[in-house]
Amino acid sequence: MVTFFKRFVQIFIAGLLATLLFLEILIKSSSILNEINWSEVIIIVFFFAAFGGGVMAYREKKRIDQLALIMAKLELLQGATTNDGLILLKPNDDYYKLAQAINAVQSVNTQHLKQLQQQDATLQTLLANLPIGVLQIEADRRLSMINDRAADVLGLERSSVDKAYDDIIQQHQLLSMIERGLADHEPGREQINAQSSGQAKVLDVTTVYYRTRSNHFALLVLLYDITDLTRLQNGQNDFVANASHELRTPLTAISGFVETLLAGAADDVEVRQEFLEIIQSETKRLLALTEDILTLAKNNLHTKQREPIKLANISQDIIRSEERRIKEQNLQVVDHINQHLTVDYTVEPIYQILNNLITNAVKYNRQNGKIDVYAHVSNMILTLQVKDTGLGISSEEQARIFERFYRVDKSRQKQIAGTGLGLSIIQNLIDQADGTVTVDSQVGVGTTMTVVLPLNK
To answer: What pLDDT does residue 373 have?
Structure first.
């Protein structure tokens, strides 16, 4: 308002002076001056001077306001700030074309900013949910980005951002890869061993040196935790090696005895009978091993078809199938399962679990020992339990008994038949059912195996 009044006074005085100058010229050149009413002339002069000053001051203020609006809009555009407001001027305004050009630039800028915001949101979502850890290290050795997965894998905090990477990362192999990447500007890939929260990890690490913007480069580090994959691969390799060894033993025995028989031993009745019995025993062992391997394979592809199952019927069938060995060892087997206990479950897993638990309790029991079989259901949880008074398992070996082909009784392996896959089959079935298995054992006292299976899975 002060500026407007100031401009009005300036323009009014200028108009008044111009009018007075005009009158002075008129007076000197006119012959009718005596007829002029000077009071009216003065009033008219002041009126036109005031009116002209007001109009010109208003137009000047309007132009200043328009320029201020344009400058403010240009500042917003310079600061990359999203603002959808447009500069609205009439077509006859002096700055109309300039306002239209600024509006067009703002429209393009707004769209560009929205695209950048969408891309940033997509990138942040991708980084947050990637199964791969991501680090970005600047040329000044500063860690500029770390996602949640990388923080978990390396045991770091998200607050580590903007700190020197070699003050944060403790893994020597990873530090060496980063140093090479920053120095050589070449991509790299290695498998490294790392420690995180006291756990050993195997990481597949890839480094990429790339341009982030003009004359600015950074090193991208991708971390893929392959610990489980490596463990699975090692387990598969061990399984193939162990299976090959276990299969080779009976096949070698069968082949050797057959060659001996064909070489003439078949003519001796006693030798022939002995060799045929050995061949039959090794064949049964081979068949049992093959059956267990196939069971493991089938369990991985098992489809659940539930039906009402009477647990007592299954346990009694298994006990009857072991009747010969039970009598040989003079074992007392007590089946505590209620005859009316029925569960809605798949038959094969239940049979496999009970069969392995009971047959192991028979095989590894002592002479005149005892076996107790239990089952009960509570809150949709099935608990199966088998107790024996057998050899027992040491605390050191209890953690390994579920490994494939692992046998506790190494000194009596040839006396106690088995493939070493029974407990592996149980573990596999229980894992698929989201259940648990626990071992309570003492050497020379006995073993209690407890399996818990959720019935609503």
So the answer is: 94
Same domain, 88 and 200: no
Q: In this structure, are residues 447 and 388 in contact, taking their beta carbons and an 8 Å threshold? A: yes
Report the domain count for the chain.
Answer: 4
221, 235: one domain: no
What per-residue confidence (pLDDT) applies to 384? 93
Rounded to the nearest angstrom, the gap between the alpha carbon of residue 211 and the centroid of all alpha carbons in its chain is 27
**What letter does residue 416 receive in the DSSP assignment?**
S
364: closest CA among 387, 395, 334?
387
Sheet with 133-138, side-by-side order of all strands: 143-146, 133-138, 216-225, 199-213, 188-196
Mean pLDDT, range 319-334, rounded to an integer? 90
Strand arrangement of the beta sheet that strand 381-388 belongs to: 332-335, 370-378, 381-388, 446-454, 436-442
Summarised one tens digit per residue, pLDDT across range 77-112 is 555 555 556 666 677 776 677 777 777 777 777 777
State residue 410's pLDDT score: 47
Are residue 280 and residue 311 in the same domain, yes or no?
no
Place of tokens 């239990």: 374
> How is residue 335 annotated by DSSP?
E
Q: Summarize the confidence of residues 241-255 as an average pLDDT.
A: 74
- C-alpha distances out from residue 66 to 96, 183, 436, Å: 10, 55, 77
Q: Which residue has 């407890």 as its token pair?
A: 450
